[in-house]
Write a structure and sequence with these properties.
The chain has 186 residues and is mainly alpha-helical. Helix content is 79%, strand content 0%.
């Protein structure tokens, strides 16, 4: 936080920024942690989220606390989902050379592993092609195992709205998978 305070000139800006930091830091961490499920990544996201706020401090001063929180949580969620997506893309989706060398090629378990990894790779690729709200809700619901009410709190929608969006997103993903020749039966 101190590195951000050094970027501010006016004492009143520094005090306001300190107030924002003290008031919202824990809630920001909880939001990021809910998405990332990793303490260190959540802390990084919280710290990275303060920089964009610096250029909007004047506007934030005149906003209501609720409006400020909406602005802050949007920044945190976007940064958390961006980090989540970067980490997922980085993960290797294919079996390493060592596993191939050690494997018995007639081993049915290996064949199942290869097929499952290819399916996961395809699903992640297709999720990347979906609009952000569909992708985010599917990831929160099915990858992170979050409850509809938890998702509703994060994205500030009603649980019914989340269920509808989730259903539409699953149907879209099913159509996309069927285009690749997979029958999902979702």
């Amino acid at each position: 936080m101190f590195q951000y305070l050094s970027l501010l000139d006016a004492e009143e800006e520094k005090e306001f920024f300190q107030t924002i930091y003290d008031r919202y830091r824990d809630e920001m961490f909880y939001t990021a942690y809910t998405i990332l499920q990793n303490k260190h990544d959540a802390e990084d996201v919280v710290q990275d989220s303060f920089l964009p706020m610096l250029s909007h401090l004047d506007k934030m001063r005149t906003n209501s606390p609720q409006k400020n929180w909406n602005f802050i949580v949007t920044i945190v969620k976007n940064k958390a989902f961006n980090l989540y997506n970067r980490k997922k893309r980085k993960q290797e989706m294919e079996i390493s050379e060592d596993e191939w060398m050690e494997a018995d090629f007639v081993d049915e378990d290996l064949e199942i592993k290869v097929i499952e990894k290819e399916q996961v790779r395809l699903v992640m690729e297709l999720l990347g092609q979906m609009n952000e709200s569909y992708r985010d809700i599917l990831l929160m619901r099915y990858y992170h195992g979050m409850k509809v009410t938890e998702i509703a709190d994060i994205v500030e929608k009603t649980p019914d709205n989340i269920r509808h969006i989730s259903r539409r997103a699953k149907m879209k993903l099913q159509r996309m998978l069927e285009e690749y020749g997979y029958y999902t039966g979702i």
